[in-house]
Queue: 4 jobs
Job 1
Amino acid sequence: MQVVFVDDESRVLAGIERTLAMSDADWECRFFTSGQEALAALADCPADVVVSDMRMPFMDGAALLGKVREQWPGTLRIILSGYSDIECTLRMLDVAHQFVSKPCDNAVLLATLEGALSLRALFKDPSVLDVLGRVNRLPSAPRVFAELTRLLADPASDARQVSRLLGSDPALSARIMQLANSAYFTGGGCGTIKSVGDAINRLGIDQVRLLVLASQVFADAVEDPFVDQLQRSSLHASKLAAQIIDGRNAQAATAALLARIGLLVPDLRDDAWLEVKTGCDTPLHAAIGAYLLGLWGLPMDIVDAVARHTHPGRAAASGFGLAGAVHVAVALANGQTPDLGYLERTGMLEQWPHWQRL
Amino acid sequence: MTISPAPDALPADALPAAEYERKLHARDKTIEVLKKRIQQQADGGATSSFALLEQNLSLGKVIALKTEEVEHERQELEKALTDLRQAQSQLLQAQKMESIGQLAAGIAHEINTPTQYVADNIGFVDMASSSLMTLLDKTLKVVEAARAGQPSDGLVAEVDAAVKKTKLDYLRRQIPEALAQSKEGLEHVARIVSAMKEFSHPSNGGKELLDIREVINTTVTVARSEWKYVAELETRYADDLPQVSCLRDMIGQVILNLVVNAAHAVADTLQSGVREKGKIRIMVKRAGEQHIAISVADDGSGIPEAIRGRIFDPFFTTKPVGKGTGQGLAIAYSTVVDKHGGEIRCDSEVGRGTCFTIRLPLSADNGEVPCR
């Protein structure tokens, strides 16, 4: 596994190098004090993970990771920064899969890297590479969703701009309205949502983001009954996940909505693929789904929860958390029983009867 | 080219203050005139008739009424003047707090960075020391066995294995380096914290004799994260600098405003592969017998001629919303000119850079005190 670290303060790099030297990690690590140097080295030999400081002279972390995203979209991108300026934070959210703030405990840094590299290992599994190689065209990032995310990240933007963006695609607006008025979002009983602006006011911006994501990801639902069914169960799971885990609503709802997105890849549109496993024993569709989300630049927590949603207990850091909530929600939405042994280990078993009634 | 601020470039608050004082003066004069007239009439009132008395009485009433009115107005104006003075000092304090707020994110970064590597290094030394201790224990066992006259190959083999595992050469090289870098990191943090304390501490309202180099060094340290990503900053101080009588925090604020402006001007001109860093130079030298000159020069974008006359105006700014309130240079002007009786001027050329020069009078009364 190849890891590249970039920080304009060479002493930070030396500290990280020493930490790694004393750990059991056997990654190939390279260290650079500027974005330009790192890019030149990456051109010779790409990396699985790039960890960059934010504030650096001339090319800052966001600029560097933006370039990495363009040229090596499969590389996982992490910002390690002690800078807390809000504008910068938003800029890095746009290009980084994860943000780790300095000072961080070296155990945290190691755990983050391990998580990233185990995802990369999953993506490099021969069966995943085989599917990726055979598929001519991977579903591209939902464009409007990406633009919406950028718009929401910009403190200068407002609700009118959001309405305008969503209104720019009539087919999309129609699907958003249709979904917004479905029982999943309104609970069925609070009158009709008539416009995108109305949806923003009534449902809140996080819900509208989910709507947009669902509308775009499951755009084929109209003509493909398989996708239609997938969309229905995904929306259901999304709602359940948000109820199961209160604190991180938006992330859990998004992760559960996207948990089975791998099944949307044209070659995999069949329930039979649910059973096919990779060499790492993860369902192939979950690995492909996670890979797609990584490419689209979704946060690493969500990518990780999707990758592990069928076997949440397998990761090193095994609390309940996001992956657990997504696991339970997806199982419930598809009429399956979650891994009760896992619920017991994480102390959540007593919640199970309550969740069954949701 | 050189420009001196036009008279209309006076800070806005100076105008209303002068206006109020003028009005007050005018009212006082009115009262004076009315009093004199009534006195004259009273003096010249030999032809005592009832009518005249009545006239005088009613005139007296009018005057009493007017006097009351005028007195009331006078009090109001005085209050307005006090409020205005207070507002002015609040504005100064507000701008200071604002710039500290802007600096805060950068200062946090300046502190978080060394904290990161110091923590990493301590973790490293911790682990290194525990594996060295294990090695030491094993070695001592060999020594013990040898002393007892029973050298054991098994124990020696254990030591060999531990040596291999411990990466001795690596530790020998890295431990001293890790400790040295950690020490530097802690010194860096201590330096920033003490500069912040120095910078934000208000002077007790009065002027004090200061080594201006210390004020500049403190300010440059506090603002480091504002310039270090875009420019090299150099300070050049003449050898024969006397101490200067000034308001420490306010002069620090002026230097900060100039350095931040310089950094912004330089940042606008950077271009990948062509020019990745600019230069900011702060120089202090004597200017004649009575003054010192502090200059802050950059090789940034320069100030277009069309706006040079307005740069000291309050609220004048070319920066985008949220990047500046347009108070920086206005406050520099009022601090240097009004509070210290000095001068500030700006030399600028578009595409070449800008140089602000401040002339501050030395202590007027106490004679000259050399810097230590």
Job 2
Amino acid sequence: MQQLLFMGSFPEAITFKVGIYVDWLVKWLMHNFGDIFNAISDGILWVLLKIEEFLLWVPWWGILLVIFLLGWRYKKITAGLLYAFLVLLIGSFGLWGYMMSTLSVVLTSVVISLIVGIPIGILMTYKDKLEIIVKPTLDAMQTMPGFVYLIPAVLLFGMGMVPAVIATTVYAIPPVIRLTNLGIKNVSKEMVEAAHSFGSSNWQTLYKVQLPQALPTIMTGINQTTMMALSMVVICSMIGARGLGMEVLIAINRIDIARGFESGVSIVILAIIIDRITQGIVNRHKVPQQ
Amino acid sequence: MTVKVKVENLTKIFGRHPKATLKKLKGGLTKEEILKQTGHTVGINNVSFDVNDGEMFVIMGLSGSGKSTLIRCLNMLNVPTEGSIEVNGEDIVKYNKQELREFRQKKVAMVFQHFGLLTHRTVIRNVEYGLEIRGVPKEERYEKAKNMLATVGLEGWEDKYPSELSGGMQQRVGLARALANDPDILLMDEPFSALDPLIRRDMQLELLDIQAKLKKTIIFITHDVNEAFKLGDRVAVMKDGVIEQIGTPEEILANPVNEYIENFVQDVDKSKVVQAKHILFKPSALVSIKDGLKVAVKEMKTNGISSVFVVDSERKLRGLVTIDDTIKAMQDGKTLKDILIKDYFTTDPETYVQDLISKASSSKYPIAVVDETDKFMGIIMRVSVLSALT
């Protein structure tokens, strides 16, 4: 017997079911704070639907034109033409509507990430205690696979687009916090001193000196956050987020190679275009240094 | 002369518990002991000095001597651990946030070693910055900034970015930005150290020009002795957070209080500091125009010299006679007036030795020092010009 206990497979006698407590906790949360979660859920859903509505309201050639113009302005004219053609390709696959669903989740998540992330990044430079809490949290968040975020999102918000936005936001927020923090910290000490020496308030120093100086770094953060949101939104198809990711998932389940290829390529195209254009914006905002 | 800035017993300690460390410092521990025991750095230690209105006060010291810490206390970028800083009779250490902001906006401006320009703004928008913070209307601050840029010789560069300017020009922008606010006090933290020597010299001269025009109270930091002595009305030498000596450049040169300062002033280019009045001496031999030739000969003989200056009853310089001419005149029956020589050099007492070198080497007579009313003050021997340089 003893030999079995130490040498064999894990003994069944040692059990500790933690799941049931978590279940209780979630139920307790839903019971007591259900209204709050509902309100958050409704708010996010409203924003999301408005964005999606808008994207679908714009005529297809309008979208192509905007992408062409962005590509032209921040890259070059050939890039603009190429991007517009690639998006046209996605439409020709019959995936236009799915693309817009995916984009609206990405946009909503990015907007929330920026609204929450940039102030946290700024505050971290001033409040050491906040930094002590936030830094390890970000480390933990960035080592975790995106997959894991689906669980709490589903537990608290159920299935559908809203938990997708929540999970995507949580997954995508670290870069913008980190890089905002880095950008503000790297502003030359003398420049900040100069601003103070003329009697600027902290607020004036922030928006007249630190933010403009940190802008290129913050933009890089926004670029990375956007890219991470895009990768997460695909995974979120598993909890019922409509869009290109859902198409891939369905194709996998049915071993439908044609459908899988088309939707997979569409995701890649979307990723490349968003990355290129935001990179272009980043480069345009480089601050000349001495 | 009114006192503009009065600093008393100022101490600044960097670290987590400056107040507790202050007690140890007062208990007699040295800077090094405190660093070892507590990890606190003593920036400045019990410093007191006055700066007069309209004065250029230079604080000189090597890196780590606390000079930058000190100047940053004067506009509270560093909050002193102890002591008071009175500006126009008000202790700025006791100011609350609002009063301090007002003080910085209106009374004091700073020029930085690495310029501290806002690289995302154009030159003119940099110069406007202080006015912008004060809430001066757009057109007015644009005008003021433009004028100030013209004053520092940067007309036409308004819409460039700082990165497009050379180092010297960038520091002119820094200076214009500080002056645009029309502050009473200008703090300059090693403003010319990052510039190459030729540009540095130009900027020093320009600063002296601007100072002559605007008459600001300037507190200037440098590690360069020559710069300190060239610019400073008075100079304070700092070492390890303590002021070792305060005085005019001549005082410090003439009487260094300790070996440290002696070493420090060793490489001073004295020709730019020492003036005629410092090396002149009052000759024991001097002849009045009323005296006869005999007196002149006797004066020269007893003193063992070959020429002597002649003055009138009001000590105004009339000329010079040589022993040969005088003896000849005695034989020819001429008077002192007939044999006066005028081809010697005169100088005023404020002239720097640097400018006397060529005179000294091209004349065979001593240089006469006269004041503005032509009164004879003394002579400078050619050899004393040379010895003043060593």
Job 3
Amino acid sequence: MLQLRNVSVKLGGVEALRQISLNAGERRIGIVGRNGSGKTTLARVIAGLQVPDAGSAEIDGRDMARDRKAALRSVGILFQNPDHQIIFPTVEEEIAFGLIQLGRSRAEAAREVQTILAHFGKSHWASAPTHGLSQGQKQLVCLMAVLAMRPALIVLDEPYSGLDIPTRMQLMRYVDEVEARILHITHDPESVRHYDRVIWIDEGRLRADGTPSELLPQFEAQMRLWGGRDDLSDLAG
Amino acid sequence: MISLTSPVETWAHRVPAGVKLAALSLATVGLFALQDPWHLAIALAAVVALVLSGGLAFAAEAARSLRILLPFLGLIAVWHLVTGQLAEGLAVALRLLAALSLANFVTMTTRLTDMVAVAAWLLAPFRRFGLSTRALELSVALAVRFTPSIARKGGLLTEAWRARSARRAGWQVVMPLAALAIDDAEHVAEALRARGGVEPPEFTG
Amino acid sequence: MERNLTHIALFAALIAGLGLIPKFTLAFGVPITAQTLGVMLAGTVLGAKRGALACLLFIALVALGLPLLAGGRGGLGVFASPTVGFLVGWPFAAFVTGLIVERWRGNLALVSAIASGVGGILVLYVFGVLGMSVTLGKTLPEAALLVTAFIPGDVIKAVLAGLITSALARSRPASVLSRG
């Protein structure tokens, strides 16, 4: 169970999140909003990477930012750009890292890496250099690295941006099969249409909350309305 | 990433890395102790025989890596012809060739993982003084992982430059490249923290 | 902790990357390597300690056998060649450069250029000349004479390091850790 109580975050003097409160226990939750709406900051708060300036963020009663040990088992995060996530030169090292961080021995970690690679039918990737992978392949490695740690909740921060349609569809299939709860942050309504619940964030505030069928049409109508205007000229601050 | 280990498998690939490194250290000290050109010539002949024992293809590759010495050998030749101290010049040239060939021989016949293992063994005693071998391991992995990606971005930036300019890309490219390295460092630090950080919390059971 | 480590590793990678970019010339079409510029930047941007560690990490990777020096050179042979001092001196050069930028809170571009000159030329050449003197069997003044031709190129690099550091500070103030 994810619980946010009056979460506010300021980044460089700008209010990125303002008093966000929500309880969420659904298996598939989408968070939609425009670029700069505060979605990524919210993802970082939920994953425990950003300490809120006010309010609290807890998963199953534990503060993810302060209790990092609990956080490693409760929540994993998939970043927008896999190049920012992949730390190691080879696929197996990358996946093993999180497992070793959880206290597994190297031998145990190596076994679990084999298991997860085999589960995805990618056993032949083990010693492949991460640098040579395509963007979609890199994102899949990141997903496997997060899944290997078996967190109860996985936060996805725009994982499909920059991927072509076939790659996106394949990756979506993999994500849909994931057993863990998923909180998917995106500006693309299409990727969360089949989810249990959608939350709309706008200018750091919670603007709407409901099922995809009632909320997404409003969201799309608003996006098209804004798309007709020229708010690109406005500078922040 | 490509390492300098030779793909041609020689007998020396099977000699333990620690033995090769110890022998190299001793031999290099020895080379610098020798002064007589005759002794150094014999030493160089021995090194050449060692390199040739790896086969002709291997020796050719080894010879190519000596090219960086050419300007220095030319310099020594001119210098000692002018000063007339030919024996000394010969000694310096022979010593350089032997020392460099021998060092390259060890690099060419030792796999990266074996080299890393020796380094880890050498550094182990320093753990007592607070050296984190885990942090070291991570930073080596990170540097190896990000070198090709920074080089690639550098290539892309030079391309973008050439697309808009008739002149060749210059130092101005270094600034965005450094900025990218800094951005990457910030993001990776975050990704590292998301998975427990450099010193992961202790898990018992 | 994580930030220190990733900055050190990424700057080691930056120095390596600067040597790998194909057809990259620094100034006036002179093919001088940009890697020592990377060393100066490690000092001016990361500060003394982190800058020196970034260079140390880079040297360790070269010693382990990775071809990270300009032109794809690397391995133990580098440490037996006449230019050995110019490589071994990098951590010291970055350290002194960083120390000056940390302590002397003047105009960043100017201070960085001067610091790069002191660290990246003065300090580095002490090591470089020592290395040349030992490997080539020359006296120190003789060895020093041999490397004077490279000083103008390095002065240009020091000026560039100053310009780049101040540009970085303007575009993202938090990135210049030496002044943090």
Job 4
Amino acid sequence: MSAQLPGPVMVAAGCGGTGRELEPYAGPDGLAGLDLVTRSITLDARAGGPGPRVVEVPGGLVNAVGLPNPGLEHFLATELPWLVRAGARVFVSIAGSTMGEYADLARRLSRAPGVAGLEVNVGAPDEVGAALFEVREPYHSASVIAAVRREFPTDRPVLAKLRPDVSRIVEGARSCHEAGASAVVVGNAVPAAFPDGRAGGLSGPAIAPIALRCVAEVHRALPAVPTIGCGGVHDLRSAGAYLDAGASAVQVGTALLHDPTTVARLRAALALRALQEDA
Amino acid sequence: MADERGPVDGSHPSVHVDGEVVATKRVGGYRHLTLTAPGVPERFRAGNFVAVSVAGHVARRALWVHRVRASSAFGPTLDVVVEARGSGTTWLAAQPVGARIAITGPLGRPFALPKVAVSCLLVGEGYAAAPLFPLAERLRERGCAVSLVVSAPDEAHLLSALEARRSARSVTVLTADGSVGQRGTVADHVAGLVERSDADVVYAAGPHAVLRSVAAAAERAGAWSQVAVETPTPCGTGLCHGCPLPVVGEDGVERVVRACAEGPVVRGDRIRWDALPDALGQVL
């Protein structure tokens, strides 16, 4: 059975709060029917990193938030049921410091009611700083995907979120797909530094051309691998660029911090565009 | 004190709207902007803030609300106070009448109000004292005796000391350079002010050092304190987790919460001050 892929618009990991903060801005239906990727959930609770966690730079934000989350147990007990009740299609982003943690997370989430799919965070801009499993080579991410896939039912999608590194992205996408990823999300924040030299990731409009190049390369080399574009999506035009380059969906992240209604507006605009194309 | 501020879960939903500058006025070192923002003034409670978009910038600028008018020639309006300190606030301060600005609000948890008429001391410094003015009006409506302290480095950065006399029983003015009122800082005077006001509740708004000294003085005097924490909030809406505020929960457990969503108003005795950076950060 093939997994039903999300799209065409998703909320990117780490930019939708717990979902509740987004609800007032999500449009007349609230979160109903919205493909939402949660912030990354780890086995144990994390308080997040020290401030400043987010600093503005021209064209974007440099962030090192440190994956603050309540841990899997608390997420399953409180945040997930709320999201499911609100009608969101919930894709849980998972992050671990070992392959075993990724497998544990996948196994326990496979039994949780209402999880539409998983997104595996294997391309964080600074895994070492975030105490995550380090992904230097494509086989690192592929082995995480394989471990997750073994624990998660095949009728629900597993997305691999990769770093938008144009020299490695095709190989990374190929090996993750072969390891069982239903689609690849291209990509994460670009490795960067804060003005004071601390490691972080750059996100926002500044990275759109980088992620777009990566999507185009993956689509050219691997037309059968579904790709989801992520990086600087904020309107019909920026979303359309990814879709025209071969992406099957886009994720909206940083733009929500600038305008929390972005996803609602983009969903409406894409629905209208689809209607016009049909006509 | 009863906490009837409402949950953080959107039961008093905020809105994201296209606002318009309907008046702009320079007052000392600040620019006061009067804005329309359909739905925001109607939902506002003292201590809430708004996040505005600045052309060419990704992060939002959080602004305290200084005053809300239920009706005017332009309909309901809100006033914000801007100090031009960086490119974003300089742009905002330069917006002329008629300029359109995307506004999200009201945001954050407001001040908790006492259920019965008690004595309240309000201490504010600089432009960040703004939320104390609508608070003073609410408290007066409830029959509370309000003493207000406005402080600033100098006269040009003193916010609305004259207007304050409308809703406060007594107003004390402090300037660090002694250009008007008493010379000195909040830290210098706060112990005596808390004692003289015989306050049951102390409210504070301003830089972290001011909030900390007020919270400590309230604690010593056995009064409740509520402080409005100003920290850079990249989104203002709770989405990005970019404004960490170290606190101790009701259960005694140390946590890091979001200043924008679980704050900006928190009990002064709940903040882990040593873990809170004093600098206001980079978002200006």
